[in-house]
Q: What sequence folds into this?
């Protein structure tokens, strides 16, 4: 059975109108029809690119969650990490994570977050060990990210945790099994976004669109710091 030429033309036209928005009478109708027609087989729609391979997706899909989901199988000790850190990281971050020159500081700053001069580091700020693993594997060493082996990343993360006193034993071995059990000092400084429940009472189905603010009552004036605009007679504006 051969396909009728009419049908082929219709399909070709539909593909064209589907990808380029043509305004105007009869074409609009065709375009509208196209939407339903092409949605069914969306991946074919523009006939560009190709489906990514499993390998490509695996290379891209490397995020790690706080519960450890996504961690690759691997392990590395603080002592192994120390050597790797000296070779790959210390030139920028300093041997003890103190930061060389103006490169980022990775350790210290504990308890400084509420001070006038907060020092945000892995130890003082970051909520989960998974954040550290995920970040370092995605982005470091700066300039050649993802260039190290998985076990080397475990070792480096173990060493950065050690620099922050999160682990204290040089022989500690970080693995995909124990990473999620590590408690970071500032985990409690982060809260889940609960606005969907905590602020629900304020939501209205019918949003107010006019005259929404009740009459404003002036309860005080900033005369103390002399920022209240004054009338010509020196009285704060708006006061009878
Ligand atoms: C060439 C300099 C350089 C080298 C080498 C380097 N880093 Fe970094 N690192 C940076 C810079 C720059 C940033 C900040 C990047 C940004 O904010 O986009 C950073 C950020 C970080 C952070 C996050 C700091 C924070 O609190 O935001 C960590 C953790 C880190 N690096 C770990 C490492 C580790 C581990 C290595 C070795 C494998 C390494 N870095 C090697 C320059 C470097």
A:
């Amino acid at each position: 059975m051969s396909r009728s030429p009419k049908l082929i033309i219709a399909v070709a036209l539909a593909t064209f109108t589907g990808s380029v928005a043509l305004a105007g009478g009869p074409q609009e109708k065709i375009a509208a029809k196209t939407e339903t027609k092409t949605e069914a087989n969306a991946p074919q729609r523009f006939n560009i690119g190709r489906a990514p391979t499993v390998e490509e997706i695996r290379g891209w899909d490397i995020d790690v969650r706080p519960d450890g989901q996504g961690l690759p199988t691997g392990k590395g000790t603080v002592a192994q990490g120390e050597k790797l850190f000296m070779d790959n990281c210390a030139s920028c971050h300093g041997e003890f994570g103190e930061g060389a020159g103006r490169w980022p500081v990775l350790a210290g700053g504990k308890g400084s977050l509420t001070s006038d001069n907060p020092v945000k580091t892995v130890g003082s700020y970051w909520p989960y060990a998974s954040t550290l693993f995920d970040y370092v594997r995605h982005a470091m060493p700066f300039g050649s990210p993802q260039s190290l082996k998985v076990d080397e990343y475990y070792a480096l993360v173990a060493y950065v945790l050690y620099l922050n006193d999160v682990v204290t034993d040089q022989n500690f071995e970080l693995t995909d099994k124990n990473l999620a059990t590590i408690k970071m000092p500032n985990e409690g400084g982060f809260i889940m976004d609960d606005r969907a429940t905590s602020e629900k009472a304020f939501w209205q189905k019918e949003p107010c669109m006019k005259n929404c603010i009740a009459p404003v009552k002036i309860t005080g004036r900033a005369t103390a710091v002399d920022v209240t605009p004054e009338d010509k007679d020196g009285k704060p504006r708006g006061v009878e």
Summary: Residues 88-89, 91-93, 103-104, 106, 120-122, 132, 135-136, 140-143, 156, 160 surround heme C (CB under 6 Å).
